[in-house]
Design brief:
The protein is an alpha/beta fold. The chain is built from four helices and ten strands, in the order βββαβαβαβαββββ.
Length: about 180
């Protein structure tokens, strides 16, 4: 049995359209709707709704909360009974995903599970969104990677440190796994 601790922080991946105001914003997590679209055999997912904000508005305190949520999810705790498929997935806005990934890499110094950050260039609710693909790939990657901090997007996995957003290509680049 695999166990995924899924931490939601908002970002484009979870933005929803308000037809009254005409704006896209982070109001509530949509991850449950996303997960209902997936078939996850022998997998349990624990959802931790931590934040609901655009990553451009994240503060140092928000990133501290993300680090602490990873610790609370058991990222640094050696559990002799834990399955090898245990991981932490973080849904995050792409604009500052690298900042958070670098901080996790610095502060989570005794990792026993993979921590995988992912996001989307287009919200889940929009057509041609990369959200569901990226979530699916992050969950898969979390089940096969060794302990460390990673970014999983667009069919690739990169390991921190050294991951950055390539705004021209609208994807991430960095040391590939």
């Amino acid at each position: 049995m695999r166990h995924v601790s899924l931490i939601t922080t908002g970002g484009t991946i979870e933005k929803t359209y308000d037809d009254t105001t005409g704006e896209l914003s982070n109001r509530r997590s949509v991850v449950r709707r996303m997960l209902r679209r997936l078939r996850l055999e022998d997998t349990t997912v624990s959802i931790i709704e931590l934040l609901s904000k655009d990553s451009l508005h994240m503060t140092d305190d928000d990133r501290t909360r993300i680090v602490e949520a990873c610790r609370a999810a058991g990222a640094e705790r050696a559990d002799p009974h834990a399955s090898p498929g245990r991981c932490v997935i973080i849904l995050h806005g792409t604009d500052t995903l690298s900042v958070t990934g670098e901080r996790l890499c610095r502060e989570l110094t005794n990792l026993h599970v993979p921590v995988v950050l992912t996001g989307a260039m287009r919200p889940f609710e929009m057509s041609r969104s990369d959200a569901l693909q990226n979530l699916t790939e992050a969950i898969f990657a979390g089940g096969v990677l060794s302990p460390g901090v990673y970014c999983s997007v667009h069919g690739r996995v990169m390991k921190f440190p050294g991951v950055s957003k390539d705004r021209e290509r609208r994807t991430f680049v960095g040391p590939r796994v």
